[in-house]
Amino acid sequence: MNTRRRLFPAITLGLVALAAAAIGANAQNTGATKATAKIGQAAPAWTMVDTNGKSHSLADFKGKVVVMEWYNPGCPYVRNIYENRRVHAMISEMKKMGDNYVYLLVNSTANISRDDMVKQSTEYLRKAELDMPILVDYDGKVGRSFDARTTPHMFVIDETGVLRYHGAFSDDNTGKKADATLYVLNALRQMKAGESVSPDYVRPWGCSVKYASAN
Amino acid sequence: MDCGMSLDRNTVAPGLAGQDRPAADSASDAGRGGRTSGRWGGPRCLRWTAAVIVGISGFGWWSREAGAQIASDVSRVGFVADVQAVVPETLFHLAVVVRLRDGWHTYWEHPGDSGAPPVIDVEAPDGFTVGAVRFPRPETFSTPEETTFGYAREAVFFIPVSAPVVLPSSPLRFRIRCTYLVCLGQCLIGEASGEVLLPPAAAGTTAARTAGPDGDLLDRHFRRLPQPIERLSGITLQREPGALIASGSTGGFTRMRFLPSEVSGVVIGDVHTTPGSEGRFTLRIQYEVRAQNLMPGTVPAIRGLLLLGDRPDDPAYQVHVPLPHPNQTKE
Predict the structure, then answer these.
(1) Tens digits of per-residue pLDDT, B195-250?
(2) Angle at Cα B184 formed by Cα B179 and Cα B190, nearest 5°?
(3) Is residue B51 domain-resident?
(4) For the domain that residue A108 is a member of, what is the CATH number?
(5) ipTM of predicted complex
(6) Identity of the residue in B186, B262, B292 whose CB atom sits nearest the CB atom of A198
(7) Rounded to a whole number, what is the distance in Å from the CA of B273 to chain A's nearest CA?
């Protein structure tokens, strides 16, 4: 009994000390360590269905350079790069570099119904006179595995499946600067020349990705 | 309505002057009746006659779908100066005031995980020097997915302006253009432009400050501008390899945070704050400099705000600590 009496205050003091330490040492996560897709490492594997119902996997594109754009035509920054034909210009440049390049759109927008998301995505691209797969990530699993933050948020994956660049589309979120630096195109050219990619990350700008609630 | 020394003294918008109405949207305003000022709170006197908000929806096949919201549906912009006249060789501020409908927010200069800062251009008369935009202490908006920084309900962005030695005798016209992003579930870009017209005053005099509701508004937000870190009592900054250690007086606050600003090539990692003894705190900011991501001409640095407390009126201090270039110096 006496032992228990002596132990109780000791345990209490220990718990208080632990609680104080937990309160006192306040760790502020700035999000810098959240990403699961890391430059220089294999990009997360994925399989997604496009808006036409066709299934695609990252593994299908082995041997090709894959550019993924997180896309939401409801976002004005996405519209900026389409209305000002910046995406058109980049795809044109990619074609000049060879037929080894793939440009994919990924839509993780879940603040509207899936049907509406598919409809808006395809209608917008048709009006933009572009034709590329729009991959549907309605549950947001792929977006979260890449830590896609914004629309647009760009990812460049090399022929071996390694992530080589991610971040901003360009240094101009208005899409109006004729001499804007297209970071993705820079990365593709450097990769083709066998150089290291620099910069391999630029903070992406744009709207937040409207993810489905995480379960 | 008695507006005192309100915006109508020093703002002019061709074609709109004298009307007390919110900013118009060029894409959708035709035929829309004037709405009452103060709809989203704030001084009713504040005239928004200077602002012309332009919808970004565009033209042709990009044009706005019927019923789709645009920025001017949820925000209004006004322009004002903190003085009633300009005295030679003095510093004053122009201000862009963005009023937001409940729930919507706009962004700080470093918006966090998503968003974009406002872009403000000022065209001043010859001889004036226009400085960088000053942003009051932002609020933090957190969701399970992301953390962003900005302003809800009301945002005021200050632009410092230095007057030259000699002023013309005619009124001084400052043209301001602002592009800004507002978000609530969806994001909309707004554009507003307008003018602030100020009379010149004699050298050596003191210009009256803008008074009344507008003056109160400016004062309230001016107090929220971050101060130089040197003004924090007992501050010490010590750089270690991969970490910056800041220590200073808590000033009675129990919560301290660091809001990092984006500097290309500098990755800010975890930040640990430890309240110490005798009213002091220690803040450890981990960082990494990645040479390949430094933009040309960028000096690597840790930049950001040290925030004490949680309220908008609590103190904020600017941190700016240059770092050695990784290709030049090894720590």
Answers:
(1) 999 999 999 999 999 999 999 999 999 999 999 999 999 999 999 989 999 999 99
(2) 15
(3) yes
(4) 3.40.30.10
(5) 0.73
(6) B292
(7) 5
